[in-house]
């Protein structure tokens, strides 16, 4: 058990039998009444996000979450196959469990599989991925990095807003947290 005063972003807790990851939290000390912690929690099983308030004296159960380094191998219909990089065991996850991460997955990419006991909760991507531009409007001479943006479809189907000078075939570094363009990848 941990005190709500020990909350940190990214910490996983167990509340009412469900697993929740703390997205953000705020300690509030009102002028009148007792202090409390206002938090935004994400359900690791359903993906639902919920606001929850805890009294500052409450304690919650810290969930035991493990992660395994695995390599994404291939898609098999609506299922996605991963291989443990240490034991070579394979794990198949249904696409609806990892729908939000599919736009960033490339074959042979290393990811972390998040587990609670024997239950697989999802995958954790690297902070950035390098993806090739599959389709975008051609760059026009005179367009610079400081002006506007245009949509570009990446090799995985993800659509990203990119500067005008980006062309089809360029490899870009993309932020996996919010799907934004960071830079051209170093080749």
UniProtKB/TrEMBL annotation:
User: Which cellular component terms (GO) are annotated to the entry?
Assistant: cytosol
State which pathway it belongs to: Protein biosynthesis; polypeptide chain elongation
Q: Which PROSITE patterns match?
A: EFP
Task performed by this protein: Involved in peptide bond synthesis. Stimulates efficient translation and peptide-bond synthesis on native or reconstituted 70S ribosomes in vitro. Probably functions indirectly by altering the affinity of the ribosome for aminoacyl-tRNA, thus increasing their reactivity as acceptors for peptidyl transferase.
Q: Which domain of life is it from?
A: Bacteria
Subcellular location, record wording:
Cytoplasm
Gene Ontology annotations of biological process type:
peptide biosynthetic process
| Residue ranges constituting the Elongation factor P C-terminal domain according to the UniProt record | 129-184
Q: Which organism is it from?
A: Lacticaseibacillus chiayiensis
Q: Which gene encodes it?
A: efp
Q: Check the record and name the NCBIfam families matching this protein.
A: efp, PRK00529.1
Q: From which lineage does this chain's organism come?
A: Bacteria, Bacillati, Bacillota, Bacilli, Lactobacillales
Note the SUPFAM superfamilies from the entry: Nucleic acid-binding proteins, Translation proteins SH3-like domain
- Keyword 4Fe-4S: yes or no? no
Q: Which Pfam families does this entry report, sorted A to Z?
A: EFP, EFP_N, Elong-fact-P_C
Q: Which family does it belong to?
A: Belongs to the elongation factor P family.
* Domain Translation elongation factor P/YeiP central per the UniProt entry, residue ranges: 67-121
Q: PANTHER family, alphabetically?
A: ELONGATION FACTOR P, ELONGATION FACTOR P (EF-P) FAMILY PROTEIN
Q: Which UniProt keywords apply?
A: Cytoplasm, Elongation factor, Protein biosynthesis
What InterPro entries has UniProt attached to this entry?
Elong-fact-P_C, NA-bd_OB-fold, Rib_uL2_dom2, Transl_elong_fac_P/YeiP, Transl_elong_KOW-like, Transl_elong_P/YeiP_cen, Transl_elong_P/YeiP_CS, Transl_elongation_fac_P
Keyword Amino-acid biosynthesis found? no
Record HAMAP family: EF_P
Would you tell me the protein name for this molecule? Answer: Elongation factor P
């Amino acid at each position: 058990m941990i005190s709500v005063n020990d909350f940190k972003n990214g910490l996983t807790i167990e509340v009412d039998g469900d697993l929740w990851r703390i997205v953000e939290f705020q300690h509030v000390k009102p002028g009148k009444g007792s202090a409390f912690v206002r938090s935004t929690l994400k359900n690791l099983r359903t993906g639902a996000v919920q606001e929850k308030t805890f009294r500052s004296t409450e304690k919650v159960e810290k969930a035991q979450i493990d992660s395994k380094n695995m390599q994404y191998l291939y898609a098999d219909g609506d299922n996605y196959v991963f291989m443990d990089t240490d034991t070579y065991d394979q794990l198949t996850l249904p696409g609806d469990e990892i729908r939000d991460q599919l736009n960033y997955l490339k074959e042979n990419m290393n990811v972390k599989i998040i587990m609670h006991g024997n239950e697989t909760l999802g995958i954790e991507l690297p902070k950035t991925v390098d993806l090739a531009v599959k389709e975008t409007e051609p760059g026009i001479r005179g367009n610079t990095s400081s002006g506007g943006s245009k949509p570009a479809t990446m090799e995985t189907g993800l659509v990203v807003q990119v500067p005008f000078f980006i062309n089809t075939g360029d490899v870009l570094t993309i932020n996996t947290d919010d799907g934004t363009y960071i830079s051209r990848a170093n080749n």
